[in-house]
Structure formats: C-alpha cells, structure tokens
Amino acid sequence: MASASHAPTPLLKDELDIVIPTIRNLDFLEMWRPFFQPYHLIIVQDGDPSKTIRVPEGFDYELYNRNDINRMLGPKASCISFKDSACRCFGYMVSKKKYIYTIDDDCFVAKDPSGKDINALEQHIKNLLSPSTPFFFNTLYDPYRVGADFVRGYPFSLREGVPTAVSHGLWLNIPDYDAPTQLVKPLERNTRYVDAILTIPKGTLFPMCGMNLAFDRELIGPAMYFGLMGDGQPIGRYDDMWAGWCTKVITDHLGLGVKTGLPYIWHSKASNPFVNLKKEYNGIFWQEELIPFFQSVSLPKDATTVQKCYLELAKQVRAKLGKVDGYFNKLADSMVTWIEAWDELNPPKGGAPTANGPPKK
Amino acid sequence: MRPPSLLSLTLDSALLHIAHIADLSHLPDHLVIDLFRRTLSAGKLTEKVLKLFLATGCEEIILAVQLLNIKQPIVPVLPTRCSESEVDIVIAALQPNLTTFFEAWRPFFSRFHIIVVKDPDMAENLQIPTGFDLKVYTKSDINGVLGASSINFSGHSCRYFGYLVSRKKYVISIDDNCLPVKDTAGSTVDVVAQHMANLKTPATPFFFNTLYDPYRKGVDFVRGYPFSLREGVECMLSCGLWMHNADYDPMTHVVKRNQRNTTYVDAVMTVPLGAMLPVSGINVAFNRDVLGPAMFPGLRLQNEGKHRWDTLEDIWNGLCAKVVCDSLGYGVKTGLPYVMRSDAEAGKALESLKDWEGVKVMDDVLPFFQSLKLSRTAVTVDDCVKGASWNCT
User: Fold this and answer.
1) Across B198-254, where does the E strand assignment appear?
2) What is the model's pTM?
C-alpha cells in the first residue's frame, strides 16, 4: 500500500538551487517571489558578458556569465554552449545542493482549475521526495498522491517504488511544440489541466522539456548535460531532448524513476517559428536516428555510477552516431569533457576541492 | 429578395461555432433569443449548448425551454464517430435488479445492441427495463453453446461469454454497479463516445507524448517527438477509470476504507510498448475483430467470489492482451472515460481478506508476462495466444 503523507511539504531551502538561464532580464522573478524567495538562485547569463542582468531585489543569487565559465573551466569550457539556453547546465555543475529546479525566464505562475496560484516548486519537491513506479503502470497514476493508491492487480513487491531522479513539469498556454507544428497551428494553446503525475515506464523514452524541470542532482546530475547547441553548432532546441534521452537510459539502467505531469507553469512567450525551424532543422532528421539509438542502448553491468554510464554512452555515441554526422563526434568529445569538468568541480566527498575559484555573487 | 443583413450573417456564423462559445451573457436579450431559435432549427441543441443559453438568465429563453418541454439531461447529439452496426455492449449481471443501471445508461446505450450475461450461479430472475435492443444469456445458453468446457464462466467471468457470442467489431463492457459520471465541466460523460474515440484514433506506444493523447482536440505531439512515429498504430484496447469507489485490492479497501477517488484526470494516454499494466474489467472496450481471441478469463483465484476484489481474471486478461498488442504492433490506451462506481461492496472487504490469495499471485504472474517473448511467426492474435499458453506450461 502507498502511504501518503499529509504532512506539509518540506521547503528544502538549503538543499535546492534554482537554475535560470537568461539573456535578457529576470523581471519574471517578481511573480515567483512568494515561492522562490527562500531559495538560492544560480543565474547563468548567456550572450554578451558585458551586459548587466538586472535581478530583482531581495533574492539570494550567484550569477555566472561567459567570462566566469571560461575562467572556471579553462579549456573545458568548450563543452558549455553559447547563445543557447543549453548553457544552463553549467549551473547544475557549480551547484552544491542536492536538488535543482530549472525554469525559463518566460515562464510564470499558472492557476489551477479552482483559480489558485500553483506553487510549482512545492509540487516538484513532492514529486522528488516520493517514490516512482517504473516497473508496472499504475492506472490511477501516482499512487503516493493523497487520495490515490495502487490499483488491484499491482504486485505488492513493487509497491515500495524506487527513488525519483527527475520531475518533469508541464505548461499551460503556449505548448512546447516544434517549429513545423507551430507553423501549422500558430493559435493552439494548451488549456487542458491534467491533474496527474505519473512515472514514465522503464524502457520508454520521452521528450524532456527543460522549461519546468527538477531533478535530484546527487542521483542523476552528471547525466543532465544539455549538449552542444547554439552559436557555431548545426543544431539548436534539442538540448533538453538530448539530456532527457541520456538521463532516461541511465535512470532505467540504475533503477531510478522519472515522473511527468504536474506541476503546470504558464508559458507566456511563443518563440519565432521561422527562427526555430532553422535551429531545429537538422534535429528533425537526426532524431529519426537518435531514437532507435537510445532505444537500443545497453549499458554494461559494471556501469554503476552515473558518470560511468555517461562515459559509456559517449563511447557509443561516437561509435554509432558519428556516421550520421561529424557533429556527433564533437558531441561525444564534449560529453567526456563535461564529465571531467563535473568531477573536477564536484570531487567525491572527503576529497580536497579543486574548483577554479569560489562562486562570485 | 433582400440579401441577409450583416447581423443575420453574424448570428449564422455564431451558430456554426456554437459548440465552442463559452459565454453569451454579454449579448443583448433579443440576440440571444434569435440565436436560440436558430440553434433549435439547426438541431444543434446539446446539453452543453442548452446550459450556455440558460446561463444568460434571459427570461424568454427559460420560458421557451419550459414551454417546449426541453429537459436536462437530454439525449445527447448522436456521436457521429460510431454506428450501431459496429458496437455491442456487454454487461455481466451479478445482481438481479438492473433497473437503476439501465435507466441511468439509457441515453448512451439505447442505440446499441446489448448482450447481458447472467451469472450462472445467480438463481433470481433479472429485472431489466424495456426499450432496449437487448438479449440475455443464461447458464443454459452457456452450456448449450459450449457444453463441457474447461472455462469457468461463473461470477465476473460470465462477461467473456458475451464477448464470445458477439458479432460486432467493437465491444464495450461495464460492471453492473457503475453509473454515468459528470466531468469537471458538469456534463455527463458519454462513455460509449469516449471509448470509441479512443479505439478509432491511433495509439502511440513507441514514444511517450508528454501532453498525452496527441489526437485529442487542442493538443498535439510535443517538440522532440519523432515525425516518423506520429502516424501511430491502431488502438485495440481502451481502459477506462472509476470515480468514487476505485478498483483497489481488498487489503487497500480495508486500510483506506474511507478513501474515494475524487480526482478527475482529463487525459487519455497510450501505455508504452513493453510497459505492463493492470487492466480493470470494470470499464473497458476493445476491438473484438482483432483482439477478441486474447480476451478470455485465464486466471481464476481459488476462492474467487462475487466482489471485484476477489478476481484477477481481468488483470490476467489485460496482461495477455498487452503482450499480444506489443508483439503485433497495436496500442492500448488508458484514462478517460470515467464511470461512477458505487459503494455497494466497499464495506465487505474485510471478510474477503481471510481467504484472499491475491497477495502473492501478481508477484509470480507479472515476471512471466514481462519476460514473455512471442515468436516472430505469430502474426495473428490467435497464434500469439497459443504461443503464450505454450510458454505458460
């Protein structure tokens, strides 16, 4: 049986960082103030480092621009994308907390059907703190939710679940469509509030969107590399997709869970579909090769850590996807660089820290 | 003849889109009345549209509704997706008095042929209201058709006899203690229309769509969904859900005796390839032409009783069906529609616990199905089921 906790959700304010990539400003934080103010923010400034990003008063944050990234990682900075929100994964790397919540700067507080403001962060924490159930689909969705449970026929030996590594939230208003769909359906808005959280079954891949995402950095952090996108790269808008496919393969291998569904945020800005089409163009064709690749990946039994799994994945990317396009050889290289950088900035506990300088405020 | 006025053209246009208009209260009364008249003439008055007009508070409309004797709920606009010749509704009668059940379902069932299978263990005669195209099968019919067979059709398993004798392409089956439920907008859910929509639109088992069923109105495939997978595959099984008295095992019923399902999840989704699920027979529909051979009562608990929690036949059936669908490239959907399941049995779970063997059964059954690999040469459902049974021994 699932025992639902009626206790209030812990704030986890000292265990969670909020990572926000931005190129413009952070005015959207005003709306989130009641929910975000207790937390530490890590802001990753993309684009021109000489520009000053205005952060609303009263938030506790550290901000990194391209100069900081170059300074802290040296030559390894090549793995962090430029002119693309993929740069946010630098924030994951420098964080020292157990949990990460990442959100885009055009995402606002949504309302549930009763008109109440949705505290997205609280729901993500609930999702991460309760187990996942990837081995058998529960038809009443998340059995640990108050008011739900495992249905008849659910094996008792599977009712403990596994730790949740990722909580994938959704979006009302502007849906996360690709460019062709945006062009065909420019007026479509997501108005349907689906009141469910569910575990994505083991062996099933999904398109992970980075707009409203939380994860357990200690369980899966190194897999959340958002790839080489943006300036100088032949592809864009596939950063979160790439991270999602890598993450899902690794969570499946390590027996961890991925949830999707609540919470909703309100996505306010529809990006330009013509610009998006240019960015996504290669991705639309490449994903036809990528999906079979990820679906057939098998990781060796001795890959028992996320880093080991990820390095093995990088090897297979080079071997099997290099022939799709030379880009994938570069990507495989940067996947390795990412893990090296991650381990440097996040030495195993007890070891002397070797980070290139303290985080600056 | 004078050309139509701009106002008239506007009202005609509003009429065309009446199903999508959310609020008419800003219109002056005389326009609301004119629109109402046009709606009636066009035959576009549904439960939702009637509510829309009544919400304006216009007295003439309220008077007109009374004078014309328009009642709520009214027979819904007939779903254009399915025809009577395609669908059988199969009801297992485990209680004798089905009057409330059939009266409540009348607006949705009255078009279709209904197969009622009486639990062979039940002595009392069935009470069914008139006005349905309905045939009852009893113990003597079962014995007459099958003679001595190893299949035990008593209790909830009697419905499978209904699947056997049906000649239609689609079958919808609902437990006799379930009634129609209202959705979050307050409209009564047409269970037939929703199951048929699920079965007639593709399923997407190869990749999970985070906005759930991409074929529903107002939604689509999300960014990152491979285009080659957007055609989907044919959906063979539609698993609905239950408000109020959810389908729990007896242990959960006892421990959470006051818990009722009050969360209406407005989604249909495909259960991914390789993922197994517990299919509940309480509210289910399937393509009988194709999947029929896989819909049989294979697993019977030793002390199977008349309560839903005493059974696992539908769970076993669902696992078979899912393995077969996965193997042959068909889809299984879960989610809407909901039915309202009554409390009738809820208090009796404690009695069943004493003899209940359900604790360990699924722990043995599930690994079998998860590891079951059907031969590549099994290309029909028949072959798959035979292949599965071979593996069983």
Assistant:
1) 235-244
2) 0.86
Alpha-carbon gap, residue B112 to B116, rounded angstroms: 12
Query: Which of B208, B249, B267 faces A194 most closely, judged by CB atoms?
Result: B267
In chain A, the percentage of residues whose pLDDT exceeds 90 is 84
User: How confident is the model over A274-287, as a mean pLDDT?
Assistant: 91
Q: Where are the domains of chain B?
A: 6-68, 172-387
For chain B, what percentages of helix, strand and coil (3-state, to nearest 5) are there? 40, 15, 45
pLDDT tens-digit map of A308-317 = 999 999 999 9
Q: Is A207 on the interface with B (CB under 8 A)?
A: yes
Per-residue pLDDT tens over the stretch B243-256? 999 999 888 988 88
Helix (H, G, I), strand (E, B) or coil at B38: helix
ipTM > 0.95?
A: no
* Three-class SS state of A42: strand
Q: What phi, psi does A173 have (nearest 5°)?
A: 80, -105
Contact B312/A153, CB-based, under 8 Å?
Answer: yes
Separation between Cα atoms, residue B47 and residue B188, nearest integer Å: 9
Token look-up 């309560």 returns B307
Interchain contact A136–B (C-beta under 8 A): yes
Average pLDDT of the residues in A235-245? 95
Reading the block at residue B3, the tokens are 């050309």
Closest CA to A310 of A297, A320, A321, A323: A297
Element (H, E) at A21: strand A16-22
Q: Where are the beta strands (DSSP E) in B322-366?
A: 331-341
**pLDDT at residue A360, as a whole number:** 41
A112 in contact with chain B, both atoms CB, cutoff 8 A = no
Residue whose token pair is 């660089």: A337
Q: In sequence order, what are the beta bridge partners of B270?
A: B333
In the predicted structure, residue A121 carries a pLDDT above the cut 50: yes
Determine how many CB atoms are found less than 10 A away from the CB of residue B19: 12
**Can you read off the two tokens belonging to residue B379?**
């290309």
Nearest to B162 by CA among B236, B85, B90, B109: B90
What is the C-alpha to C-alpha distance for residues A64 and A94, in angstroms, rounded to an integer?
10
Contacts of B282 by beta carbon, 8 Å cutoff, 6+ apart: B174, B175, B178, B240, B242, B247, B308, B314, B339, B341
